[in-house]
Amino acid sequence: MDLPKYPFFTSETFLDFEFESNGPNGKIKKVVRYSPQNANGVTYFNLGFGDWNETIGKIDDSAISNNQDRERILATVAATVLEFTRRFPDAMVYATGSTPARTRLYQMAIAANCNEIELFLTVYGFADNNWHPFKKGVNYTAFLAMRK
After folding, report:
1. Is the pTM of this model over 0.70?
2. Which residues pair with 131 in a beta bridge?
3. Domain extent listing, the chain
4. Residue 120 Cα distances to 4, 29, 67, 70, 116, angstroms
5. Helices 100-112 and 70-87, packing angle to 10 deg
6. What tens digit of pLDDT does each residue of 71-130 get?
């Protein structure tokens, strides 16, 4: 995808990615973490994302930083998905927002960049208790992406 994004760094395991948001509220450390999960014998990776909270030593996925760089942050997170699936081409990545509003934001970002995303990934949305190929205009509660 040809959108502006932040440079990011990854751990040796390629499960954690870090970058800094830079805006009117200063530099804010962001972390994207891919955590292995298992459901019904199927392994997938949950995409966790948020501000790094130094006080508790954890990702805060409910933080609202208002650094006026939302599109750049979302493009950076998407770039980590591409890098992660490049390293682990058979991995399935599961993502949902920490709130319905954030899930909707992710859906709008996927829809807005669908043509570029579909060059590299197959994306599904969860609705009506089933996974469906992603379509614009359908409200989903979660997303699943796999490398083509």
Report:
1. yes
2. 126
3. 9-147
4. 18, 27, 29, 22, 8
5. 80
6. 999 999 999 999 999 999 999 999 999 999 999 999 999 998 898 899 999 999 999 999
